[in-house]
Write a structure and sequence with these properties.
It is built from three helices and 19 strands. A hairpin with a 2-residue loop joins strand 5 (about 85-95) and strand 6 (about 95-100). The radius of gyration is 18 Å and the shape is globular. The chain is mainly beta. Strands 1-17-14-19-12-11 form a six-stranded antiparallel sheet, with no helix packed on it. A six-stranded antiparallel sheet has the order 2-3-9-4-7-10, with no helix packed on it. A four-stranded antiparallel sheet has the order 13-18-15-16, with no helix packed on it. It has a single domain, classed as Jelly Rolls. The protein has helices at about 20-30, 165-170, 170-175, and strands spanning about 10, 30-35, 45-55, 70-75, 85-95, 95-100, 105-110, 115-120, 125-130, 155, 175-185, 195-200, 205, 215-225, 230-240, 245-250, 250-255, 260-270, 275-280.
Length: about 290
């Protein structure tokens, strides 16, 4: 969608770094990478990538760390049973092992050793993403000389905790969507913001008012058929400044800080659409004075 002024911010095709061929082939044995965002794909963007996990795999990512914060997501693909992962993932934070069987988001502060990541069971495809607040995804070697915490369970979020202002609009939101998980500094100390939902029906959303943020943002819309992953099975209208974008494929939209965006209108939802939004800031704050 680069044939317009703001179309360059809408990514609907996979563009990845120059991965080693053997890494690409190994990844295909258990997963299908759908979209990748970083500063080389869209100038100024922070990094995010999304995949479907399809099969068990014992040779996932090895222990490493980053010099920026990260959020990793694992989501079951049944909107009628959204917290059931329909699988089991072994995931390590420092020296503590977690067995994840529910839809989850994991916050990983900069410098925290994490992984291995082992797909022990995949009964249904699992939607996976990771995002870091830097412009590129860079793994660093695990640091052994560390002061460990007693329990890292606080970094793993499997239940919805939303701020009071979102609870107020929950009834209206539930008419067209189901909010799954919410992350910010009030849910996990130090975390940046991310929230996830299933869009279920056509509607003018509660993000219908044009607004800006003082942080960059990535907004995601993904079809729920792992066998046809780029088909959104719906149509979404979203405005970037004074330009309408019509989205019919799985997409990530980068919204630079200060860019006016929305209305966001669900024109058509033939199958549930997985949706997320994330900002590197600690809270999701809208400035609606731009409308």
């Amino acid at each position: 969608m680069t044939d317009s002024k703001y179309g360059k911010y809408v990514v609907t095709e996979l563009k990845t770094p120059d991965f080693r061929p053997e890494f690409v082939e190994a990844y295909k044995k258990f997963a299908n990478r759908i979209l990748w965002m970083d500063e080389n794909v869209v100038e100024g963007a922070f990094q995010m990538n999304c995949s479907w996990y399809l099969k068990p795999w014992a040779h996932g990512a090895e222990s490493h760390q980053h010099d920026v914060d990260e959020i990793i997501g694992f989501f079951g693909n049944d909107p009628k049973d959204p917290y059931n992962l329909h699988g089991e993932i072994e995931f390590w934070l420092e020296d503590q092992k977690f067995l994840i069987t529910r839809t989850a988001m994991v916050f990983i502060p900069a410098g925290m050793n994490h992984c291995p990541l082992i797909l022990r069971k995949v009964d249904r495809p699992i939607f996976h993403y990771s995002t870091v607040t830097g412009g590129k995804y860079i793994q660093q070697k695990m640091d052994e000389a560390r002061k460990l915490e007693a329990d890292y369970g606080k970094y793993v979020v499997t239940e919805l905790k939303i701020p009071p202002e979102k609870q107020v609009i929950a009834e209206a939101y539930a008419k067209y969507a189901f909010r799954i998980l919410w992350m910010d500094k009030n849910v996990v100390e130090g975390a940046f913001h991310m929230n996830t939902a299933w869009y279920l029906k056509a509607a003018a959303t509660l993000e219908d008012v044009p607004h800006t943020h003082d942080s960059d943002e990535i907004i995601g819309f993904f079809g729920n058929d792992p066998k046809d992953p780029y088909n959104l099975h719906g149509e979404i209208e979203i405005w970037l400044e004074d330009e309408k974008q019509v989205i019919t494929r799985s997409a990530m939209v980068f919204v630079p800080a200060g860019m006016k965006h929305c209305p966001l209108i669900l024109k058509r939802v033939d199958q549930p659409i997985f949706h997320f939004t994330t900002v590197p800031g600690k809270l999701y704050v809208k400035d609606e004075s731009q409308k």
